[in-house]
Amino acid sequence: MTDMLTTATAFFEACETGKGWEGCAAYCTEDATFASQAEPIAEITTLQGYTEWMKGLLTILEDGRYDLKGLSVDEGRGVATAYGVFMGTHTGEGGPVPPTGKATTSDYVYAMEFEDGKIKHMTKVWHAMWAMRELGWA
Question: Which residues neighbour 137 within 8 Å (Cβ) at sequence distance 6 or greater?
Answer without folding.
Answer: 90, 95, 96, 97, 100
